[in-house]
From TrEMBL:
It is found in: Cytoplasm. Its EC number is 6.1.1.4. It comes from Candidatus Syntropharchaeum caldarium. Residues 688-820 form the Methionyl/Valyl/Leucyl/Isoleucyl-tRNA synthetase anticodon-binding domain. It comes from the Archaea. NCBIfam families: leuS_arch, PRK12300.1. Its main location: cytoplasm. One of its GO terms (biological process) is leucyl-tRNA aminoacylation. The keyword Magnesium does not apply. It is an enzyme of class 6 (ligase). It catalyses: tRNA(Leu) + L-leucine + ATP = L-leucyl-tRNA(Leu) + AMP + diphosphate. This is Leucine--tRNA ligase. Coiled coil: none annotated. Belongs to the class-I aminoacyl-tRNA synthetase family.
Length: 944
């Protein structure tokens, strides 16, 4: 038998597919299916997370291709923005961490890395590297359409896109807080970050408390409605604070040094005067600007000087952190005259809600991790269900919050400060990001209400989401999305057409490139200067106009776009719902006609490595090229597809990958063994029909699963399900029998084709060994009605159940029987089961109703007590089975005596004992009176 040499097989078929240009597709070759996936940013090596991202769409592409669809699966490379520039700068200045990452983890050759001082060299090296690895993974991509986002033709496409948005009033200049890198002197997006990709910008209200000398003690809060409940302020006694002069307000403030640096970027004109320790202000009194009450400044080491202003207002009645901190001080005998002041009433909580939740969660001190959960629970409950007390009595929390802001802002006692929702937020240049209030910046107006409404309509009624429960997350994103800074001053990319000093940033030039793929291969041959807005208007919007390119080529491009669009599915990671995936819906609804809006989106989970989150910077990553070299592409694909559904997180574990490799070797050997058996004849027995029926079930289940993108379920059915069926079949019959050989050859032909989308290399080689001249043109197996017969399923279930029961008895008794006697259930018990199942199908089964119907039968009347016990047992047993199982049991009646008799030879072979089968109704041999225990699908068993 030929050995499974995966390296030879994979290189052979990769070469054949590439030379044959197998995956290059054009319109007019059948019904189209167009899917695409987020293109990669080639600034570092591909890892196994990328492997999963790109294998899922490839499995679906191959599946649909084998169904007869004309499938487009394209790929490009996203290189816009500052990430590669940041990498280049770090390497140029000798950054040790960057050099170590690229030398030791990504294993970039020294001579190549020396050229990385030019960002274009990084793009060139990794985009070529990615292309080679994608090919070695067997991705069925049409590489003619490959492009990068700095190609001049693509830039002309983006120019057209933004002219469209500006004409519709959806791009405007304004002032807005953005993530900003002080070192790069540029706004930054999620693609530009080493960490903090999920951080959002939160708006805090600065409340100005006042020392007697007029110095402002600013506190930043999200809950201005609780100001009447302030009992004290918190300051970190060991923290570094500064006094600053606000020049434009002629005010002196005390705040942390870190806060002062942040506010410089947020339009605060301040000058630092002196540095002081927080301990100097402990026990000082300050005035609450809302009610003029004097409150004390108390020490608290939990105060983070890098959060807000570094000084916190304390509301112990409604903030678990404040409640615990005050309790700790009072337990030490201090500040016992301070008492929580309730300002919000909430059903289900006592007068002091923070005390309730702290006591219920048994929170002991300020270090208790449950404090964060307590805070989240209470804040949500108060915001959603809370009713204000005191001055704003009866109002909701949200209303009171805005009223307090308005009152204090009118008095000059409030300001706005912006903070990140999580930290750290690090630019790829290794600098901590800040929030900057940008003026004269260009924004995409995602805040536009009419635009939001169009996107929501698309989400609810046009675009199918997988999994469906993500709809609420998409809708929430649409709701909270605000205007987005779409340009920056430096980086790679397309200049803003009407203000070319600005460059369109990465998340803003990657929203409709799915349409670009449809014509990308044509555009490569066109002078970019000829690609004006009229060309793209004609192609994508069907507008008439004077174009400077060949009319025939223009017509071809328009026809190709109309053939492929809209795309059927887009696939991307779940962390992109908050930006890219929702952005692209906005841009599609703004630019394209309704019939070209996205049809579907599939969202991925994340990848883990041995239970830990993968991180290239920490070296906790497996390079995809290494995995392919060590295990083979098919093994990598099989593990990634078999370990989790696409929307679930997967966990790469070497031990399980090694096991997957063994599974494929076993599959290879099994199929080769059956191929070498030669030809059989279609002389079929019951067990053959059972296997063929099982195969039809597997084909249907796997096909249905892949239609739902449930790649794991499909792989489990296709690989392990069929393997399990075949293993049982080979035990049940004489495999040298001509009918068995025909059956197994029929099965492996289907089996190999079913697995082709998942493991294309090994299956192509096996198809070749089976005599198929062009494996790439093989079709997916479909349900063969000739072999659909549930009766054989029930018959074999009876045999397998009986086999398992005998095994269990032998394990318990530890005897070696000379004889095994089986008693099949009598017909009256089978009839009783049928009555109960029929009533179960109609609805609830009542003991009295069944007894009334059954006792009309004289045969049943004679067995009164026995029947009564059986009815109760059957009602309990069949209460939980599903409708499909009920239909199966009702639709087929099998002769259990005949089935068991036919299987007697199998039982004798397995247990090395003589086997006799009797009908329990009239057994000629029953020394232990076992026959009375015979039950439908569960014969009585006696061992001698």
């Amino acid at each position: 038998m030929k050995r499974y040499e995966f390296k030879q097989i994979e290189s052979k078929w990769q070469r054949i597919w590439e030379e044959g240009r197998v995956y290059e597709v054009d319109p007019g070759q059948g019904e189209k299916f167009y899917l695409n996936v987020a293109y990669p940013y080639p600034s570092g090596a591909m890892h196994i997370g990328h492997g999963r991202t790109y294998t899922v769409p490839d499995v679906i592409a191959r599946f649909k291709r084998m169904q007869g669809y004309n499938v487009l699966f394209p790929m490009g490379f996203h290189v816009t923005g500052t990430p590669v520039i940041g990498v280049s700068n770090r390497i140029a200045r000798g950054d040790k961490e960057a050099i170590k990452l690229y030398r030791d983890v990504y294993r970039v050759p020294k001579d190549v890395m020396e050229r990385f001082v030019d960002p274009n060299e990084i793009v060139s090296y990794f985009s070529s590297n990615y292309t080679a690895i994608m090919k070695s993974m067997g991705l069925s991509i049409d590489w003619r359409r490959r492009f990068t986002t700095v190609d001049p033709q693509y830039s002309r496409f983006i120019t057209w896109q933004y002219n469209q948005l500006k004409a519709k009033g959806l791009v405007a200049k304004g002032e807005h807080p953005v993530k900003y890198c002080p070192n790069c002197d540029n706004p930054i997006g999620d693609h530009d970050l080493l960490s903090g990709e999920k951080a959002t910008i939160s708006e805090f209200t600065i409340i100005k408390f006042h020392l007697p000398d007029g110095t402002v003690i600013p506190t930043a809060t999200l809950r201005s409605e609780t100001l009447y409940g302030v009992t004290n302020l918190w300051i970190n006694p060991d923290g570094d604070y500064v006094t600053v002069l606000l020049k434009n307000k002629n005010e002196r403030w005390l705040l942390s040094r870190e806060a002062a640096e942040k506010l410089k970027y947020q339009d605060f004109d301040l000058e630092i005067e002196s540095l002081v320790k927080g301990s100097r202000f402990i026990d000082r009194m300050v005035k609450n600007p809302l009610n003029d009450e004097m409150v004390e400044i108390l020490p608290a080491k939990f105060v983070d000087v890098d959060m807000g202003t570094g000084i916190v207002m304390s509301v112990p009645a409604h903030a678990p952190f404040d409640y615990i901190a005050l309790r700790d001080l009072q337990d030490a005998g201090k500040y016992r005259d301070i008492h929580p002041i309730p300002v919000i009433r909430i059903e289900g909580y006592g007068k002091i809600p923070a005390a309730d939740v702290v006591d219920r969660m048994k929170i002991k001190n300020q270090e208790d991790e449950k404090l964060a959960d307590a805070t989240e629970e209470l804040y949500a409950a108060e915001f959603n269900r809370g009713v204000m007390l005191q001055e704003f009595g009866g109002e909701g929390v949200a209303t009171a919050r805005e009223r307090v802001k308005k009152i204090l802002t009118g008095r000059g006692d409030a300001a706005v400060m912006y903070e990140f929702s999580e930290r750290p937020v690090m630019c790829r240049c290794n600098t901590s990001a800040v929030i900057k209030l940008l003026k004269d910046q260009w924004f995409v107006r995602y805040s536009d209400k009419d635009w939001k409404a169009s996107v929501k309509e698309c989400i609810r009624n046009r675009t199918k989401l997988i999994p469906a429960e993500l709809e609420s997350e998409f809708l929430r994103t649409v709701d909270w999305l605000n205007d987005w800074a779409c340009t920056r001053k430096v980086g790679l990319g397309t200049p803003l057409p009407w203000d070319p000093a600005w460059i369109i940033e990465p998340l803003s030039d990657s929203t409709i490139y799915m349409a670009y793929y449809t014509i990308a291969h044509h555009l490569k041959e066109i002078d970019p200067e000829l690609l004006d807005d009229q060309v793209f208007d004609s192609i994508f919007l069907g507008k008439d106009g004077v174009c400077r390119i060949d009319p025939e080529l223009l017509a071809d491009m328009q026809a190709e776009f109309l053939y492929w669009y809209p795309y059927n599915y887009r696939l991307s990671a779940k962390d992109l719902i908050s930006n890219h995936l929702t952005f692209q819906l906005f841009h599609h609804t703004a630019i394209f006609r309704d019939e070209h809006l996205p049809e579907g989106i599939v969202v991925f989970g994340i990848g883990l490595l041995e239970g830990e989150k993968m991180s290239s910077s920490k070296g906790n990553v497996i390079l995809l090229s290494d995995a392919i070299e060590k295990y083979g592409a098919d093994t990598v694909r099989a593990f990634l597809m078999g370990s989790a559904e696409p929307w679930q997180d997967f966990d790469w574990r070497d031990e399980q990958v090694i096991a997957t490799r063994r599974h494929l070797e076993r599959f290879w050997n099994t199929v080769n063994e059956i191929i070498e058996m030669g030809d059989g004849k279609k002389e079929l027995e019951s067990i053959d029909y059972w296997l063929l029926n099982r195969l039809q079930n597997r084909i249907k289940a796997a096909t249905d699963a892949l239609e739902r993108f449930s790649t794991r379920s499909a792989f489990q059915e296709t690989f392990f399900g069929i393997e399990s069926d075949l293993r049982w079949y080979r035990r049940r019959t004489v495999i040298s029998r001509s009918g068995a050989i025909w059956t197994m050859q029929y099965l492996v032909d289907c089996w190999v084709r079913l697995l082709a989308p998942f493991v294309p290399f090994i299956t192509a080689e096996l198809m070749s060994l089976m005599g198929k001249s062009d494996p790439s043109n093989e079709k997916l197996p479909v349900l063969n009605e000739e072999f659909v017969n549930p009766e054989f399923e029930l018959e074999e279930r009876l045999v397998e159940t009986t086999y398992n029961d005998i095994n269990e008895i032998l394990k318990v008794t530890k005897i070696k029987p000379q004889r095994i006697i089986l008693y099949s259930a009598p017909l009256w018990k089978q009839e009783l089961r049928k009555i109960i199942l029929s009533k179960r199908k109609e609805g609830r089964v009542e003991m009295g109703d069944v007894m009334k119907e059954v006792m009309r039968d004289p045969v049943m009347q004679k067995r009164g007590k026995e029947v009564s016990k059986l009815i109760k047992r059957m009602i309990d047993e069949y209460q939980g089975i599903d409708e499909q199982e009920i239909d199966l049991l009702l639709s087929r009646e099998i002769n259990e005596y005949e089935v068991l008799s036919a299987a007697a030879e199998f039982f004798q072979r397995e247990f090395n004992a003589h086997v006799s089968v009797f009908d329990a109704e009239d057994p000629s041999y029953d020394p232990a009176r076992k026959s009375i225990h015979a039950y439908p699908m569960k014969p009585a068993i006696f061992l001698e």
